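JOB MANIFEST
job_type = single_chain_structure
chain_count = 1
residues = 274
[input]
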Amino acid sequence: MPRARRVRKGSVGELFLGLHGVVDVDTSVLARWRQDDVAEPADGINGLIVSRADAYGWPSVHSSAGVPPGRRWWHLDAGGDWQHPGRQTEMAWCQVDVAPQLPGQRLPFLPLAILLSDALNAVGTYRLTGFHALVPLEAAADARPALASMAEWQELTAFRQPERTLHVRLEGAPDSLQADVLAATAQELAQGHLTCRPGPQADGLPTGVAAQPVGHERLRDVRAGELGLGFDCAVRGWGPDTAAWIAELFVEALRQQSRRTPGSVLVAVGSKLP
C-alpha cells in the first residue's frame, strides 16, 4: 500500500497518534501477508488503516491529493511494532496532516483511535496500556460542545466499568501553563467523570507508553514550550475511546490557557496492565 503524497499547502502541522500495549497477532495473518508480497508489517498496518478510513468515509490516501477545501485532516502514514510478541510496544500508530481551525471540526483523536483499534482487532487481540498524541496546538478548535456530548456517553455507560488510575503527561507545553488550573479545567470539562490533580513531575512518559513513541523526535523542533507536566487521574472504563477522550480534554484545557500558541505538545496517557 503506497504512502500518501505529502501535501503541505494549507496545513498547520502533523498530528501523530499511537496505541501502546501488548498485541497478539495471529500468525496466519503475517504468513498471508508474506504470500501477498507485503514487505513489512508496517505496510500491512498502513493498508488496514487506509482501507478502514475509506470504509468510514474518512480521509485516506485515496482522498489526499489536492486536499479539497474544507477537509480538516488527511492521511500520511501508519505503522506499528509487532516484532516483540508478549511485550509492551507501540502496537499501532498513524500520522496525519491537519488544516487550520475550521468551524465545528475538531482534531480527529477518536477517529484515529478507532482506526487503530479496528486494525488491531482485525489481526488478533490486544491489551491497551497507553496512548499518545503529538498535537499542533494552533490546529486545536473549540471542542467544548462535543466534549459535553461525550461526557453524556460516559454518564450512560461508564458506571458499568471499574475505576482505573491513569497517569497523564504533557511534554513541550507552553511555559506559562499552571498545572493546577489545567487539571481543574480538564476535570470540569469531563463533567464529573474524571478526577484529576497535578502529580509528581518526574521525567519520562507514563508507565504503559513507549519511551520514544512515533513523533516524539519531532517535539524538539516543534514544541510549544519547555514545560513538562504530570497528572494523576481516575476514570471509569479504559480503552482507546476513553484514552482519546482524556487526551482531548487536556488539549481543550491547553487551548483555553494558551490561545493561539504556535508549536506542538505531546500528550501521553498511561495505565498499567490489570
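[summary]
The longest helix spans residues 240-257.
The two ends are 36 Å apart (CA to CA).
exit_status = 0
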